[in-house]
Amino acid sequence: MAKKAARAPLDYLNMPAMKAWLAGVFVFLYTPLMILILFSFNDSKANVVWKGFTLKWYFKAFENTQLREALFNSLLIAGVCTVISVVLGALMAFVFWRFKFPFKGPLESGMNLPIVVPEICFGVAVYLFFARIGFPNDLPYPFNLTQIILAHVTFAFPFVAIVVRARLESFNPELEAAALDLGASRYQAFRDVIIPHMKPGLIAGGLLAFTLSLDDFVITFFASGPGTITFPVMVYSMVRFSVTPEVNAASTIIILITVLATVLALRAQSATTKES
Question: CA of 71: how far to CAs of 65, 184, 240, in Å?
Fold first, then answer.
């Protein structure tokens, strides 16, 4: 009797049970977001009964001066954090990939500590550190955001370093050797050969750093000074009283910003991959 051919790994995706399981997972993950977005258009102040379609909660959200200020602060912090984290993470990944030096293993493992340490512990540590060194919390705007930016960079750049380091593992050293043989300097080989290979990792790491910084609450709560508020902290303060459609509208705005950033990053990454 002929034996039944073994199913290829990817063939399991065609099994009805696997399709049903994946559908259930997607429903579980995205149904709460869909409900939040739907009720941001609800013409009722209560989030229980649908009364009709309206855009007034979005107008109220944009008319809220504190909410606009918090959103701008979050975008500014996330943007600066992304730039610094990409530079630090890329340099860190390159150093650990290229060079050999004493205690390289422990240092590389220690770089990942901000990723594995619970956020609440990291937030308390950041608070105690800034309090211990006497970091000024009465600086004028936008320098009063420095404390939050430094805290966000600390936990964001390891993510960039891990992604870029994984990308560098696929680099062919012969390409750099060929560039050097053709007369390029070390800097030119790094700029024109290695960095283009790193670009997909830089984009993916930058996206991670941006989204992590944009929606962080716990560490921001401990690192923010008096009079400094970010979008997640503002939304939390609004939710403490009641979950109104205005909160839903504000949350929908941040979701759309994150989705837009993801789409743009994926397109840029795809274009970079095709070029390389």
Answer: 10, 46, 18
CA atoms within 13 A of residue 249's CA, in its CB half-sphere = 22
How many helices and strands (H and E) does the chain possess? 13, 0
Amino acid (one-letter) located at 241: F
* Gap between the Cα atoms of 123 and 221, Å rounded: 8
The structure tokens 């600066």 sit at 80
42 DSSP β-pair partners: 53
* Percent of the chain clearing pLDDT 70 (strictly above): 91
CB 115 within 8 A of CB 89: no
Q: In the chain, which ranges are E strands? A: none
Per-residue burial over 87-125, b if 16 or more Cβ lie within 10 Å, else e, is ebbbebbbebbeeeeeeeeeebeebeebeeeeeeebbeb
Q: What is the pLDDT of residues 82-92, one digit of tens each?
A: 999 999 999 99
42 phi and psi angles, rounded to 5 deg: -75, 135
Q: Which DSSP category does 97 fall into? A: H
CB 156 within 8 A of CB 208: yes
Q: What is the CA radius of gyration of the chain?
A: 23
Which of 151, 87, 162 is closest to 125 using CA atoms?
151
Amino acid at 39: F
pLDDT higher than threshold 70 for residue 2: no
Helix axes 119-133, 146-168, angle to 10 degrees: 130
Q: For the whole model, what pTM was predicted?
A: 0.81
Superfamily of the domain at 56-275:
MetI-like (1.10.3720.10)
Q: Where are the domains of the chain?
A: 56-275
